[in-house]
Amino acid sequence: MERTPHIAKPFVASAAPAASDGSRIGFENVSVTYGALTVLHSFTLTVNPGEIVALIGPSGSGKTTALRAVAGFVRPSGGRILIGDRDVTHLAPYDRKIGMVVQNYALFPHMRVEENVAFGLRAHGAAEDVIKKRVPECLAMVGMSTYAKRYPRELSGGQQQRVAIARALAPKPQVLLLDEPLSALDAQIRRSMLDELAKLHRDLPNLTVLYVTHDQSEALTLANHIGIMRDGKLKAFGGSQSLFRHPPNRFAAEFLGRAN
Ligand code: ADP
Fold this sequence. Notes:
Oligomer: single chain
Keywords: ATP-binding, Nucleotide-binding, Transport
Bound molecules: adenosine-5'-diphosphate
Low-confidence stretches: 1-18
Order of helices and strands: EEEHEEEHHHEHEHEEHH
Family: Belongs to the ABC transporter superfamily.
Strand order of the largest sheet: 6-7-8-3-9-10
Protein name: ABC transporter ATP-binding protein
Mean pLDDT: 87
Helix content: 25-40%
GO molecular function, one term: ATP binding
């Protein structure tokens, strides 16, 4: 499989400090089965520290399963998952130092915005004085400071997703997993959220992001590298611009050509 040279995106300043190796995500020959169905087949991928890698591919190709395996919600039947040099394959989700945002917000409806963000910190055992300081910081990071006292039902979809991002980032994870975070939003909000995600990553250059999307233009806009999956395998991987310009194989060419 061809690995194309890194193409720096405009939002990754070249003067940014090198991200620490501790945030590298490594899949080493990871297999996942559901009953008789194998949905990841010896899946191998490295997401370098501070990079955004987007996983795209047909529905059912295993993108979400790959993400959930990093989060610790599915247990591989073979292979290893590394965060930095730590083998996290058998660690519980809360011990992995990972933030995750899914498509449908998953905020707690009975908790105010600030309580939702605090929940993630409490779950990680943060002290109350730390929580008091960190919650406003995180809400400011996603432009939601004035909504701290609202309930999720009083927010738009885009605002709820901002809160979900604030909650995921509150414990200062080294790795952020995003599973179709914008797909429930309408096109205009999606575009502005893409800009905000890019800005967020500029502000947090050490954060390593694995981003699952069915939207190729989202992947192209946001990611440094893109992986294309089919049938639980990585069929192509490369710098996002070059992958689109020079698909390394027929499947990649057909997949990328089909959607536009
Ligand atoms: P993608 O994100 O690319 O659409 P998924 O990782 O969600 O793909 O799913 C990969 C395959 O695994 C699909 O065939 C899906 O039906 C199956 N699958 C996903 N989750 C489960 C589950 N909890 N139990 C059984 N099969 C599942």
